[in-house]
Amino acid sequence: MQQMKMQGCEVEAIGINYKIHTNKTEHPFKIFSKSPQLDNANGQEIEEEEEARVEKSCSGVRHVLKNVSFQARPWEILAIVGPSGAGKSSLLEILAGKHSPQKGSVLLNQKPVDKSQFRKLSGYVTQKDTLFPLLTVEETMMFSAKLRLKLPQQQLCSRVKSLIQELGLDHVAGTRIGDDRVRGISGGERRRVSIGVEVIHDPKVLILDEPTSGLDSTSALQIIDMLKVMAETRGRTIILSIHQPGFRIVKLFNSLLLLANGSVLHHGTAELLSLNLRLMGLELPLHVNLVEFAIDSIDIIQQQQQQQCQVETEPPRRLLGTMQQKKGGDDGQQQQSGESKSD
Ligand SMILES: Nc1ncnc2c1ncn2[C@@H]1O[C@H](COP(=O)(O)OP(=O)(O)O)[C@@H](O)[C@H]1O
Ligand SMILES: [Mg+2]
């Protein structure tokens, strides 16, 4: 583990498939969906079909992540982007060891890792801040430090002080966190405290679910800036999900993972995403954010990728056709050679 701390952790996900079972529940509007005029046999058939459709929509298995693979390197930030419901939080929960996928694996420096070991090496910041509103910033950090570290009191104090400084929270160290009822620190500061609680043990991997949601653009940029510094000075591997990142924020990401409907549409740098979109005939309009444009173009990207897959699977079919024609006799062969000439 000491060696991992020195060299940093490369996180690799391979072919993650995650399905959830939704409960079989009676459709709440089932009685209203019945049509009273349907008396004849044809009407009954339609009614049965409708019932089956409603049943299907209320029960069964939901494929949340489909064959998701990616790599996140130390000293870098990987941003998971995509529309709401794409599977970003589910993927992060799997990485953080909260859920187990049915298929696929997560490797750390090319080795499988068990959940308890990974928890010691990582920090996971959830989308919602779960802090005690009546504690001050310093007390909150101290509480986390005592839980996570086995160090003498003096060392704990100095660790907390230096982290508060690193997070830019000196000016509010003695202020209580607060919530909707009790006024406390600002939303951006609260988010910094949540991050601080999860990095007190100096984890090599930091996972954050939408660390900028609900913040104004300046506070959002400050948070990502701070994470960038953490990655670059401590060799941390940072994996975060983000919704609508601004242009200046996108520039700070080393790579992007574009998810849609649980599938990966892009994994690589922002420049590569821009190039791929251009190759698909999707020219980025002036003054439009690249990630926003990519999310708006998801339907077209999916269509193009499906067409590409079909083209890739076509040659074997053609070959099969050729073989069948060959079996059929010389006529077929001539026809095939004619075809290839016209190609
Ligand atoms: N426990 C669950 N019960 C029902 N649906 C779920 C559950 N977990 C995830 N989902 C569904 O999986 C999809 C992905 O969810 P999520 O990972 O939260 O997406 P995102 O974070 O990208 O908005 C959504 O359609 C969501 O409704
Ligand atoms: Mg989410």
From TrEMBL:
InterPro entries per record: AAA+_ATPase, ABC_transporter-like_ATP-bd, ABC_transporter-like_CS, ABCG_transporters, P-loop_NTPase
Example of a GO MF term: ATP binding
Biased composition annotated in UniProt, kind: Low complexity: 332-343
UniProt keyword Hydrolase present: no
PANTHER family linked to this entry: ABC TRANSPORTER G FAMILY MEMBER 28 (PTHR48041), ABC TRANSPORTER G FAMILY MEMBER 5 (PTHR48041:SF79)
Name of the protein in question: ABC transporter G family member 5-like
Membrane topology: Multi-pass membrane protein
UniProt-annotated location(s): Membrane
UniProt keyword terms in alphabetical order: ATP-binding, Membrane, Nucleotide-binding, Transmembrane, Transmembrane helix, Transport
Residue stretches making up the ABC transporter domain: 46-286
GO annotations of cellular component type: membrane
Pfam families named in the record: ABC_tran
Taxonomic source organism: Trifolium medium
Region (Disordered): 311-343
Keyword ATP-binding attached: yes
Domain of life the protein comes from: Eukaryota
